[in-house]
Amino acid sequence: MPPLPPQPISPLDGRYRPAVTALGDHLSEAGLNRARVHVEIDWLLHLTDHSFFGSAPLDPELARRLRAVVQEFGQADIDRIAELEATTRHDVKAVEYYVREKLAALGLNAVAELTHFGCTSEDINNLSYALTIRSAVQDVWLPAFTAVIEELRRQAAEYRDEPMLSHTHGQPATPTTMGKELAVTVHRLERVKAQIEGTEYLGKFSGATGTFAADLVADPETDWQAVSRGFVTSLGLTWNPLTTQIESHDWQAELYNRISHANRILHNLCTDVWTYISIGYFTQIPVAGATGSSTMPHKVNPIRFENAEANLELSSALLDSLASTLVTSRLQRDLTDSSAQRNIGVALGHSVLALDNIKGGLGQISLNRPALAADLDANWEVLGEAIQTVLRAEVTAGRSSIADPYALLKELTRGRRIGQAELVEFVEGLDIGAEAKARLVALTPAAYTGLASELVDHILPTTD
To answer: CA 306, 307, 309, 311: dihedral to nearest 10 degrees?
Structure first.
């Protein structure tokens, strides 16, 4: 067979591209090169603004036009850097030559030697990665993550009073409400979100082995640590004073571990919702024109949640690998991180795709209240916990002489299905106070949800 035209290997660049396109603006090779140009130009302007080596601050219009190189960075610029790299065989050197060309076009050859001054490639790269990762997380991943949280919050509030049989170990257990169970997930996700939002994005700018050696030889009188700190913080990053040639990437490991944790909470949500669909607690809303099965026309498959599960697993696998790989570098430098970091966009892309599917899936389910009610009514034995707990309180208060309340209820309910009539008859024959007896006779599985509804308040906005 003849070969196909060039095709994307990753499904993120193929069938799933619409869901992850926004990440390409940050974590693609082009996005990285734009950030490198940004750092190179800002560093040159930082030097001229402080009149290093006899330079002077650029004319404001020239400075504006130089900064516009970053703002207007497009396909022609992407192609030119690729052409330069084909000759240099070095990605950062290609960016340096590209910046020099832009300086020449603006008549700024007099300051061209300040391009990449005192820098090792990693000085440019670590800042560029910090900028692109930060913007990808803040502008793309976090909004998608927040959208899922907000939809869960909305449903938690909507279903806060909807009683549901719990299933601990897959067996009927003390009832809850669907809203409270969704609120648990919201609470978990909010904690991780706060940790991710609090991420420190670190940067170094200290030369070939982190010692400022070249800078100090060029100008022994300058406080190069202060210059480095001022430049890194001017980019909105946290200055790291102690590094080898590379920034140690610990902040990246922390971030990826947190996002991986978020992925796993979401994976738990997907498996739970999938199970609720399978037992009929949620019904799926058919999408017009969609096909559930190629042979069984009746099916509406929970494919959004299944797709999300797979992509969350892939994302976490990559993030875990990045977190463990990036914190190690042989002696003062090796290039393991160079290849690894090019997969950050892939790792976040699988998570963004999963978030898109979860949000869509949550919008295509509806609570099946009759199914929840029927399941509760078929499992009156779950009230055994309530009855034996009341008996213990009655014995302690001196209103009952029952010897072993737990054993009594175990004999009645363990491994057995009992109905309302049997349970009422049993309670009526108990040696307990009249008020407690009346409470138990009136109790139903649907009413035995404790503070479930009130607990939802913990994830809802407070009103003063």
So the answer is: 170
